[in-house]
Amino acid sequence: MKLYIKVMKDGDLPPGKSAIVTVRDQEIALFNYKGKYFAVSNKCPHKGAPLGEGRIEEGVIICPNHEWRFSLETGGCPQNPELKTTVFPVRVHKGVVRIGIDEDEGKKAVGKEKNAVPDALKFKIPTIQKPINPDETL
Ligand code: FES
Asked: Pfam families given for it (predicted)?
């Protein structure tokens, strides 16, 4: 079941503009495209760039980093059919814009104490600075 969370007032985001909003600890890119709202995960599934800073052409978000494209309606990527960004439903009711998320999305596991690794178990993993084979990329 979806929970619709209030993110802004209708009219706060003019047509052609985007905003990055946080809903239950996740960043969502909200677009007003030709007067209709669309919401997708702000994190580009390619390499994590903020899709909310991208531009839109013909109903397609263009990622600001490598210009991969994602459909506003489906989240699908025409360059790579295996890649898709999460699309969230948006409702506007009584002048309020709400984004729908799964009821348990963003909830953290609840326990008596925070999970913490005891100091005795902590160890340092060296950071790989250069590839062993210089022709190889990380
Ligand atoms: S990070 Fe978005 S296309 Fe590469």
From this structure: Rieske (PF00355)
Distance CA 92, CA 20 (A): 17
Q: How far is CA 39 from the centre of its chain?
A: 9
Pocket test for ligand 1, best of 40, 43, 61, 65 (most atoms within 8 A of CB): 65
Find the CATH number of the domain harbouring 72.
Answer: 2.102.10.10
Q: Cα–Cα distance between 32 and 20 in angstroms, integer?
A: 12
Q: Domain containing 33: what range?
A: 2-104
Instruction: Choose one of 43, 47, 51, 85 to mutate for the ligand 1 pocket test, by most ligand atoms within 8 angstroms of C-beta.
Output: 47
pTM summary value: 0.75
Count of structural domains within the chain: 1
User: In this structure, is residue 23 part of a structural domain?
Assistant: yes
Q: 90 alpha carbon to ligand 1 midpoint, in Å? A: 24
